[in-house]
Design brief:
homodimer, alpha+beta, 4-stranded antiparallel sheet, 8 helices, DNA-binding
Chain lengths: ~250, ~250
DNA sequence: CGCTTAGTTGACTCTTCTCAAAAGCAGTGG
DNA sequence: CCACTGCTTTTGAGAAGAGTCAACTAAGCG
């Protein structure tokens, strides 16, 4: 099994075979979630952590007016809720945005890793900090960029993140979201989201074919969106042999 | 010295005297920054970490159009940049928003704590996760709440955070920010920020006296802002000393 | 094929932005 | 003590980006 978590963490530092064995071995079992189901809900504190293996999920919060705001996307290789290893309970929910396959990891396994303070613990912390960096960048996007730039920025990010776990083909990737969901993410109405996507298409920066997002000109899109990939901290793995990365 | 970091971390779990000694002992020396100065800048990777002892600082990113977006506030007790213990370099800057006193902590001291995997390491991770939770809530605020609710929400948060480190008196606290800075945080123009604050005053939810923010009716303000303090995870310290829930 | 969900488009409204200028306040130096 | 200067706060007026309502089209599915 090619574990997307391993692929992801190796962006940060080379993992030993022992490390990889630990990561492989920690999943208790695998569970499937249908699109729309919650993987974990507000207030919960289960005794296991979810590792997304396939599909897209989203962290979200519901507002009293009934609308939902998505505050993060989870793609294969992302740990959904290490939080519960440390916090009292979930302060948000995570829902499957497409059908998802998820590895169930006992909390103990996570705690063991955190307690061993080795490479793996570092790698987990790194991924937590990257998640945080992404949140900061989103905050800037929503707070200070126009709808069009914001959308372009989002597409750049998702392309690079998909690439990092081998889920992009060249400059395109599968984005199993509805426009409503993207709107709930970028703080726009569905109508305006639609118009904004149309504009990006008109500019010939992206093309959309079903659920495939095809970036026509990544250079231009990045320039347009004022996108600097530094915040993703996707440096090449530690300078060692055979370090391959999807490109 | 009453260390605000200790006060903060004890919200999460009780610290042993040994833990406290470590926290006290880790500061190498203290440095002062004048309002407007950068404490750490984009791209840097120094060999020490900053602990804010006095004053307010802010994480920010600059945009090509020249405007600045503030993505987090640091108040006494907050570690500014544990990030550099794990990431290659800062992906944002931290600036002093008022005159600040800062403890300089060698990176080694942080790494030692992280490596020992005890109470303290857990407490640091907890505070990182809380920072992340705050970012998520801000994202919801900017993305989905009106200017007025967003502002009210922000005031609620800062009051509770100040309280947690003993910097509030009842329902008021010192907020050493200009309206422009708050605007740069909430994604509003300075003009609209001003009008929004005026409205909150007219509603008699808050009063502003110089740099003092006085919350007139916290209950109402929280209800108005749709503020749920859960995300701050300010639970009382763990029930008993030895009660380790880890692993 | 009809049903349901997602995407598209138009027309109108409203929140928030921009430009502009006045007023308040604090620090400085004569 | 006062005039001067620079920054912050306040207010007005018009413009623009984004939201809402509503209808229509396209696409997946049993």
């Amino acid at each position: 099994m090619d574990n997307p978590l391993i692929r992801k963490l190796e962006q940060f530092r080379r993992l030993s075979n022992a490390d990889k064995r630990v990561l492989h071995g920690m999943a208790d079992h695998v569970r499937d979630y249908a699109r729309g189901q919650d993987i974990i809900s507000l207030g919960e504190r289960p005794d296991h952590v979810h590792l997304l293996l396939d599909g897209w999920a989203g962290r979200y919060k519901l507002l009293p007016e009934g609308n939902r705001h998505i505050v993060a996307y989870l793609i294969p290789g992302d740990l959904c809720d290490v939080h519960i290893a440390l916090l009292d309970r979930m302060d948000h929910s995570i829902g499957a945005l497409s059908d998802c396959r998820v590895a169930i990891i006992p909390l103990n396994a996570i705690n063991d890793i955190l307690n061993e303070s080795g490479n793996l613990s570092r790698a987990l912390l790194w991924s937590m900090l990257v998640d945080e960096a992404i949140l900061r960048e989103w905050l800037v996007s929503i707070g200070a960029r126009s709808a069009e730039k914001r959308t372009a920025h989002f597409i750049c990010e998702m392309l690079l993140r998909c690439r990092a776990v081998g889920l992009a083909e060249g400059d395109s990737f599968r984005m199993p979201l509805t426009q409503q969901e993207v709107a709930d993410t970028l703080g726009l109405s569905a109508v305006h989201m639609n118009r904004t996507l149309k504009q990006l298409r008109r500019r010939e920066l992206v093309r959309i074919d079903g659920k495939s997002m095809i970036v026509e000109d990544l250079e231009c899109l990045m320039a347009f969106a004022d996108f600097d990939p530094l915040y993703l901290h996707q440096s090449q793995p530690a300078p060692a042999p055979g370090a391959a990365r999807a490109g």
